[in-house]
Design goal:
The chain is α+β, with helices and mostly antiparallel strands. The protein is 43% helix and 20% strand. The chain folds into 3 domains: 60 residues, OB fold (Dihydrolipoamide Acetyltransferase, E2P), CATH 2.40.50; 57 residues, Orthogonal Bundle (DNA polymerase, domain 1), CATH 1.10.150.20; 44 residues, Helicase, Ruva Protein, domain 3. Strand 1 and strand 2 form a beta hairpin.
Length: 194
């Protein structure tokens, strides 16, 4: 199992990134919480990883902080939640804030995360309340996507669970001149959580 990678950031387009480790490019999927803090392409990066193997696929997920990886793993232990929703949780809310919402039973805030309905939020509160108590901030070939930041942001929002029309609307409302995809996504997710 791959637990950590240290190498050169060769590619980043939400939600995908490629890390070159000794000439081997590892393709990872990462939440927006990691994308916000990634260095520029060509710089060294260290990522905690989660390796998932199923009958029909093998996936590698990357996180800048151990607390993100732990939350990603814990959220998937809730029945009915997989990697896609776990990534949406990390992309939509900070680890500390998610822990607070679960501990206080704030179902209304949890349902603002894409893919989380009321029943799922209630299950999360019950099943994760004890697990999130210690969470906090810890030290720190890909598919081709369009080069247009608005299109990149729209695609990333769809991959986070938003319907295509909703993703387009969110991205268009969030975009400002000079914004890159990560900034558009961040502003769109912040607006959606208000």
């Amino acid at each position: 199992m791959i637990g950590r990678l240290r190498g050169i950031l060769a590619y980043k387009q939400p939600p995908w990134l490629v890390i070159d480790v000794g000439g081997v490019g590892y393709e990872l999927e990462a939440p927006m919480s990691t994308f916000y803090d990634l260095p520029d392409v060509g710089r060294e990066v260290i990522l905690f990883t989660h390796h998932a193997q199923r009958e029909d696929s093998v996936s590698l997920y990357g996180f800048l902080r151990e607390s993100e990886r732990r939350l990603f793993r814990d959220v998937q232990k809730v029945s009915g939640i997989g990697a896609k929703i776990a990534l949406a949780v990390l992309s939509g809310v900070a680890v500390d804030e998610f822990a607070r919402q679960v501990q206080t039973g704030d179902v209304a805030s949890l349902t603002r995360i894409p893919g989380i309905g009321k029943k799922t939020a209630e299950r999360m509160v019950v099943e994760l309340r004890d697990r999130v108590s210690g969470l906090g901030s810890a030290p720190l070939g890909a598919p081709s996507l369009p080069n247009d930041p608005l299109s990149e942001a729209t695609i990333a929002l769809q991959q986070l669970g938003y319907r295509p029309a909703e993703a387009v609307r969110m991205a268009r409302e969030a975009v400002a001149p000079g914004d890159d995809a990560a900034m558009i996504i961040r502003k769109a997710l912040q607006a959606a959580l208000r």
